[in-house]
Structures are given as C-alpha cells and as structure tokens.
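anyone seen this seq b4? input:
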Amino acid sequence: MSTDGWKNFGRYGADRDRGNVHGRVALGRALEDAVERMIIEGGIKSPPSTRRGLMARMRYLMEHRGGREALAEALADVGSSANAATLRAWKNGSRIPRRVNIDAVDTAYWTLRARNVLANPQLLKDHLNRDGRGTRVEIHPINQQVVDEPRRRDNLRIRGIQVRYVWDDAVDALAAGDADTLEGIWDDIIGDLDSDYGAYQYVSYIGLGA
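predicted toks r here
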C-alpha cells in the first residue's frame, strides 16, 4: 500500500477488517489490558476456598478504605449479611463461611482491588516506566488480506520497540479519554520505525511487555 493509501485509511479496503484500527485505539486497549494484568497478577493467589486465601481477602477488605462497604454490598447481592463478630471470625480463620458467602468475599475483594488500582494511576505509570527502562511495545501490522491486492504490503512484520518517557502522558490520556493525546503519543512511538512509519499508523494489535 502506498503512503497516500495509509493517509486515507480504508480507500483500498483495509477497513473491511474491523480489527484493523488506528494505533491510538490499539494503544488504549493495550493500556487497559496492562491495568487488568496488574489487578489480577498482583492480587492474592491462594483460592478463596482455602483458609489462607479467605483470611488474606478478609484482611484486605477490613484494612482498606471501602472494604467493609464492598463486602456488605457483595453479601447483599447473594441475599446474605454478616455482623461484626462474624466478620472477625472470618478474618482470623476461626469460622469458615458458607460457599455463597466465600464467593461474595472473593467478589468484594476483586472489586475493591480493581477500584484501588484504578484510583492510583501512578502504579501503572511506575509499572510501565520501570525506573527509566521503559516497556517493550509489540506492534502487529494490519490484516493485509482484506486490502485490494495491488495495494497490499505483504512484507510488513511484527515490530518490537523499547519505549520510554511517554508512559506518564499515556496513562493520563487513557484516564481522561483523550484520544488526541494518545494519537500524538502513538505518532512518537512509531516515529522510531523510520521509513515504515506510515505503515503502522493503523495496526491489528499492540502488546505491552508489562
């Protein structure tokens, strides 16, 4: 595909695959995936059905702001409740709740953990900046099979770039829903691809090594 074709995305059929999107869109999705991984991978590993896992979740809920409210809401959703003495017994492991209440504790824990991670964007910034080392970005070119055959660039390949210094602004833009800033950041990232710059304005997928 010629440079003019990339400037006028879709002229030669690239938009026939809805998975082909502007880099700013794919970058936003990649950042959201990174947040989800932070929430899950940094969470409690022991299953809630084990004494250790249950106690760990209860400690988190009882010791973090909003935890008691999150647990009360999760219990109410399953038609249950627990008084202060029962909560203490669950927390210290002297009483094991019914399965439905264990599930409610687990739901409340992940809800609160997600809320706390999302409320502190600096966590994601630090995760991506890695003390100045940055994060590797894996860029997948668009699906060329939907492009009109004379305009295909079958020589495009997955590219990997170590990206630094943009992550604070990228996380702030994601939180603000600022597509223009994400577009500018994506332009900065693919600027390192030199002559292939235009071919990666639109992509099929972006992966972050974080």
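Residues 1-7, 9-14 have pLDDT under 50 and may be disordered. The radius of gyration is 23 Å. kinda curious what u guys think
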